[in-house]
Structures are given as C-alpha cells and as structure tokens.
Amino acid sequence: MTKLCVPMMVDSLDQALAAAARAAELGADLVEYRIDQFADDAEQVASLVAQSPLPCIVTCRPAWEGGHYDGDEQQRISMIEHVGMASHAPAYFDVELAAYSSSKNLRQKVNLVVDHEKQVRSVQAGLILSSHDFTQRPADLSKKVRAMAEEAACRVIKVAWRARSLRDNLEAFEIIESRYKPTIALCMGEEGLMSRVLAKKFGAVLTFVALEDGAGTAPGQPTVDEIKKLYRWDSINAATRVYGVIGHPVSHSMSPAIHNAGFDAADFNGVYLPLPIAPSYEAFKATVGSMLEHKSLHFRGASVTIPHKENLLRFVKEMGGTIDPLAETIGAANTLVVDDDGSLAALNTDYDGALDAVCDSLDITREGFKGMQVAVIGAGGAARAIVAGFAHYGANVTIYNRTQSKAKDLADDVANRENMPVSAAPLDDLANADAAVFINCTPIGMHPKVDASPLGDGKLPSSFGPGTVVFDTIYNPIETLLLRQAREAGCLTIAGTAMFTRQGAAQFVRWTGKAAPLDVFERVLLEKLSAKR
Ligand code: NAP
After folding, report:
1. What is the model's pLDDT at position 118?
2. Is the CB of residue 473 below 6 angstroms from any atom belonging to ligand 1?
3. Of 84, 166, 315, 451, which has the maximum CB count within 10 A?
C-alpha cells in the first residue's frame, strides 16, 4: 500500500520528534528526516531514529543534488555507517545514484547497513537510490532508472524531476508501472501535483506530503490535510476515475473542492485535480490526447476554463466526438465527458448553471422562460452562454454592453442560430430597461472593486421591484453592490454562487450518472469563499 511520507528538515532532535509526532497524528505512515544540516552529530541522528514515532527514511542530501549538505563526504559516509549500525535502524536510507555509483567507499559502507541478497548480517534498513532534477526532465531518465534497478542493494527506485507539463506525470506513471522494483516517481512543481496524488493509484512506494503549508521540502508537495481531505487519498485505488479542471491558471479554482466533496458524498470512486495546460491549442491537444491514451489513468472528464473553452470544442470535433448543440451556438464548451469506450463529448454547462439558478429561485421549469423579457449586461464569454441559453428556451433577450458593436454581433449571431429575436442596446440604456430578469455578466463589482455596480450612477431600472429577478454572475463578493441595490428595491436576487454550483452539478451528473449533492457544493463553496476573505 502506498505510504504517505512527511519529509522534514531537521534542526534539532526535539523539533524533529515533535514534527514527526504531529505527522503521525495527521495520519502519515512514514517520515523522512532530512538531516542535511544536522549530520554533524551521528549519535543525535541515531537517537532521533530510535525515538521516532513513525518508521523513517534518513536522508543527508548534498548541495550538488539540490539539498543543503555541503560538508565533507567522508563525514556523511561515517554518519550513515554509524546510524546504520545502531540498535534501531531506519526503514530506509536515501542515497543519490550519482554518489553511490561513483564512490566505492560510499557503496561499501551503505551496502553494510542496508538489507540485500548478499548481506550476511540481518539488517532492517532498505536502500532508496535516488535522482533529482529541480529544473527539468533529465535526458537520461530511463538510463538512470535501469541503473538503479540493476543495483542488487537497491530496494526502492526514486526519481523526481520538475514537470514542464502534465505529460511528465504520465511518464512517472509509466516508470512505476514498469515494476522493475518498488518505485517512487514524482514530478515537482504545479504541473506535477497529479503524480503526487495519483501515486497510490499506480502503486508507488510512497508520496511526499508537507506537514503544513510552506513546510514542504520540494516544490508542489501538497499538505497531509490536502491530500487526505481535498484529494480523497484514503479512497484512491487502481480503478479510481480521474477528472479535473483544465485552464491556465487553475491553482485558485474552487472546482476541486466542490467536486471532490461531491464524489465523497455520492460515494463515487473518482478524484478531481487542477490540470494546468499552457495556453495554446497545440498544448491542449497534445496533453489531453496523451491523458486519453494512457488507459490506466482512467481519465474520464474535465471542467474546462479560460483559455481553453474554444480549444475543447475544436478538439472534440477533430476527435469525432459529440458536441452539445448549444455549445456549438455558444462557440465554447466547458465540460469534457469521456465514456468508458473512449468516446468524447463536449458540452457547455455554464448556461445550465444560469438557467437552473433562475428556475430554482422562481420555482419554474425552463419552458417558463418563453416570452420572458431578459436583460443581459455584458457581451463576453459568460454572456454568450447565458444569452444563447435563454434565447433557446424562448426568452426575449436584450444585451446591454459597453462596446455596442460586440453586443450587436452577439445578438445577431444567437438570433440567427436559435431563430429567436435578440436585441442589443448601449449600457447607458440599462436604466430604461423593462425586464423581468436582469443578469450581470460583467466583472463590475467583483472583488476587490466591490463599490462598483453596472448601474453606474445608481439610477435603477423602472422594472426593479417585487417580482423582478436580479442575478449577478459574480460570486466574490456573494452580495455585490448590484444585488444589494436590487434587494433594497424589493427584487428577488440570485448570487453567482448559485450559477457556479449548478454548472458544476450539471457536470457531476454527466460524469457520475448520479444526482449532484448541490447542498454539499454550496456548503463547500461558501466555506472556501469565506476562508478567502
Ligand atoms: P469577458 O469575456 O472578459 O467579458 C467581460 C464583459 O464585461 C465584456 O462584455 C466587457 O465589455 C464587460 N466589461 C468589463 N469591464 C467593464 C467595465 N469596466 N465597464 C463596462 N463593461 C465592462 O468575461 P466573462 O468570461 O464573460 O466573465 C464575466 C463575468 O462573469 C466575470 O465577472 C465572472 O465572475 C462571471 N462568471 C461567473 C460564472 C459563475 O459560474 N458564477 C461563470 C463564468 C463567468 P466590453 O465588451 O465593452 O469589453
């Protein structure tokens, strides 16, 4: 079973023991004592190993391999020898392949203190042979893996490198899957998170997790809490289906929190990750294509956000998949669905989220939009999905936008495709709008500029009052100035959170075939938003 290992830089015996006790409390299985700056006193290191509350790895990483040890190599070797010969051996010593292959002395001493076929003495410690590259994928990666595998004393192969794209993770999985020997193959950096979370799916020996934010020993390590609570570590197994949010950037997306909590609530064997892909169609195609080809990854879908919504549509078309007709009208998709047989579908659940938010608050079905006057403020990506959705269900939509020509183009395009009248008006005319539903699709009023409203000087449209719905797609803050103005005028208000959770709910249903736990989505989103404040 893949272990959760908390690495820690050791400053003192007490500090390391306290951190290891905390790691045990949080549910880690193993700790790695990085004694790079604590290697002077071998007696103290032996004492640390003897008192460790969890099985441990002892590592003294030299500066030339990305560590902090810049002392004498002979002293490092003596320390390993001393700790290895002490009455309580660590579970593993981690030694760099480069040092082990080039120093006869190191090899000899290490072989004496680790367990292997040619060892007469019975010892408990295993040898991790390791190689790290903090800048890129090493050109001789496969050669290094084979060299480690061929060393009789090597119990665990460890390779770690800085991922340049998500595709590096797939190579890490291939290395684990080749099963030369028990393996740790990890990618560093934001693009490498997948290799850390899915280490268990592929049967790696362990993954490294930081005790808390900022306490990691390599870039991209999630915390114990994150991997267990956010990324569902305890539920991950070889059959776990993989989903995620594709975009650039995606690190601040709320989608992993809501979807993973949803998988938990629905007892669905899935995990949802941030999937950053560089902003070009070529990068999108190559990365998503590789993830689909790696069958054992069980990549089954993604939410797709800026700048890849148009790329998703193009990709699924090129692959011969199915396109939701409204996504075609909108010209962008936000959801990829991958069926078990590999067939693809692209849909747009942004309009679902908006339509469902209004339906739920008015307690009507989509058929109830027929003939309804809807004022949409903005003519960008969100407006496009919302205008198309409401027009499709028969609403009379008017688009109010700062750049009049963009409003006109959008109105004409949707009117032609949906065969429905859609009109355009200048933003200044908003105060004269006579609509039953107003929807803000601009960022006006979004954090941090919370004192702004698309109503500008504050003159309210004449139809603002009881019975009118005002919906702001912005969800930070939850109540924008526009919503406050509308609430005070007696309108029914809808926050952007309602759209966000419902577009996620529509994705969830398509991926899992189960009802979406909307209450869970709402609770998690509100928690995340209040934590941000
Ligand atoms: P976008 O494509 O950049 O479009 C922005 C629109 O806002 C454009 O029409 C732009 O007018 C207008 N605009 C921007 N700044 C303005 C200003 N200072 N004064 C007047 N008009 C201004 O953005 P988007 O992707 O559609 O996103 C728009 C909003 O939707 C965002 O605030 C986002 O929070 C929200 N959203 C919410 C959800 C959800 O699930 N709740 C989902 C998607 C988007 P011009 O045409 O004149 O430039």
Report:
1. 86
2. yes
3. 166
